Amino acid sequence: MILTLESTCDETAAAVVTDDLQVLGSVVASQDDLHRRFSGVVPEIAARAHLERIVPVIDEALRKAHVKLEDIDAIAVANTPGLAGSLLVGLVAAKALCLATGKPLVAVNHLHAHIYACRMAAGKNVFPCVGLIVSGGHTSLYHCASATDFHYLGGTIDDAAGEAFDKVASMLGLAYPGGPAISQAAEQGNSRAFQFPRALGGESGGLNFSFSGVKTAVRYAICGPQQANFTAVHLTPQQIADLAASFQEAVVDSLIAKTRLALEQTMDNTLCVGGGVAANRRLRQRLAELAEAMKIELHIAPPDMCTDNAVMGAIAFERLLAGRVECLDLEAVPGLVRQ
Q: What's the predicted TM-score (pTM) here?
């Protein structure tokens, strides 16, 4: 059994998982209520909330699993990428537990773990594959030769897709987090009402994404380029729905186009998708259509495993089998990590 810890951004999570990938106990403490009034994650608030919650979350995960800390064989923790303060809380907790118990420490790459959530849900090997991670902080494509061999293909050069969803939701006066709010509003909208840009289109843009331009285009659609205070503009419910649907379609179009290109370049016949935005209904529909058209196998993490959680940290078993354990001087590596 391993105890896995997750504290990369704004969810404090712990899970106990067996080597046959059975989840004995899983706990996630969300911080949405703390960040809602800011319409985005405030790093210092996130770190302090992790500090308050990490021990109770670990304790509850062990209680749910009906095991004691001494029964655990290894402790895994996500040490990259993420917010510096948030990562440190989970990493220091994991090191302290390893020091106290003598258990081995296993490092987890948070992005790789999002793809491993597909392996967990599938109940079978899904590698090799193209991995697409679409979350609040990351939009990345990988060629995943195995669970321990990820090759970075491309990613966003500015905003991540989830970040753009949050910012556009704020412009439209919708709730935080923005992803579910945009998706719900878009159901009543016309996705062709506004012609928003699809940046870095075609092969000339490689396998990189850009969502800053479409976010700015929404702002101009609301109030025009000359007006600074777009919050003063009154939008009807139908206008909000049309803007949400058109924006969502532009983002999904970009994600599908680059994913198709990655599949063509790697010639992989399996696609695995994870991250918070992977719960978006329109994206899941378009991914299914892509898989059918290209005759590939598609695995999308189930909605409850799209957002940050510790269960996906079971990828640590793959590292353990490969003999990859860490010294207690393991460092947190924040930010965007292209590996």
A: 0.94
